Amino acid sequence: MLITLIRLQLLKRIRSSSFARSMAFGIVAIVIGSFLLAYLFLIGLVLNTLVKEVMGVSDAVLVINSSLLYFYLLELIYRYFIQRMPVISLGNFLHLPLSKSRIIHFLLGSSFVSPLNCIALLVFGPFAVLEILPLYGAVPAATWLLAVVLTSWSIHWFILWFKQRFEDSQTGLLFVSAVLFLSIVSSYFSFFDLGAFFEPVFTFALESPVPVFLLLTVGILSYFLCFAFYRQNAYLDELSTGDHLQFADRDLGFLSRFGLAGEVANLEWKLIMRHKKSRTYLTLCLVFLLYGLIFYGNPSYQVESGFSKVYIFVGTFITGIFMIQYGQLFLSWNSPAFDFYVHQRDGLRALVHGKYLLFASISLLCFILSVPYVYFGWHVLLIHLATFLFNLGVTMHLVIYLALWKPKPMDLNKGSMFNFEGVGISQVLVILPLLVAPYAVFLPFSYWFNDYVGLAALGTAGTFGLLVFRRISSLMTDRVIQMKYEIASAFRQEL
């Protein structure tokens, strides 16, 4: 039966109408993934040296054992976005006289064949050989590495259960992100070291195989937790409907005040909440709000007068990340229903204005949530205000203008991460002018006068863009209307 299931999966891929394109993207993904895994292996080779020289400690094993918790919290986050289960394949087998348990075992087993499950081995395997083996011997090095890898594999099964159990809830992810952030900050400021509480578990693995057996038991239990949940809910009605979709039907009430454009913006919001890829973009906005912590508190970016020029990029990124990411695929999100808007009176005009409303609303929310960065100085708040105004007055129009260059159709039901639906070279190149534009305004005034005059120029350019917003948005809308048949023809191409 196992061979039959594997054969059916291979035939499904080969007979797909998009097999050639999927194979090309697969080859590119394999090449990129191989480079990333090679870099991780290189990090593992120099991990002991980095710990000793950069952190200035002699006992690298103790430091790594105390830091493993943060690695696993980070692993929870990136597995949440990247790791996925081929649950949709269940619908092809449930009506057949096949054992449901075998189908679930096959799907769980196939999900385990993933580069993500090699990361812990590639990073900490060389460390075990180069650092632990000479100090403690072969058996302690093997048991320690097994403990580390088994914990990572337990997270694999836990994420499979968690994503399906709380598929449309971001609460768990935000909780893990908050724990990771607070634990790193508390450890940095010497308030509280959460990793030190878990350090004895891996230190004990150097002395006894007991932690290995305990973690193996945890891994088996997490597997059967995942198996039991999937088997219990392996019904077509469970796969298609659920109470968790109720939140996706809620609109943003204040948008209804803007007429037809507001109604379209509400519809766009519902579509964002209902699809994994668009919902992932929204979640990444919240995650990237922490991006400033890398720069604002870093002594290497402190200058004697003014502020670092890098802060302009950080402010643009934090306050405009959603319109940059989501706006890259400006009309591709609506490609399945684009003809509907074309044939409606003022349909395209309402669609474009609705996206303007959505971009502006979420950017405003990102700016408000970034206000606590004033802790690092009032200049940070001024930077965020100036870049926010520039994003609304200039960047938003650039996003829409550049995104109309050779848009591609998109299938929203094909996953969230490493999904290249709607993405072409033109969509990738959109990012470059969006990041260069703020510096084109800021740098001349900063060079001739000072950084704060450059910041004022940046805010002034954004304010002027807001004053002529109606005129520019009308020009963008007219351009979409002029290109509607060309765009519709591109969207009718076979996915």
From TrEMBL:
Signal sequence extent: none
A Pfam entry, by short name: DUF5687
Record keywords: Membrane, Transmembrane, Transmembrane helix
Transmembrane segments: 21-42, 62-82, 103-129, 141-161, 173-192, 212-230, 280-298, 310-335, 356-375, 381-405, 417-440, 452-469
InterPro entries: DUF5687
Protein name (record): ABC-2 type transport system permease protein
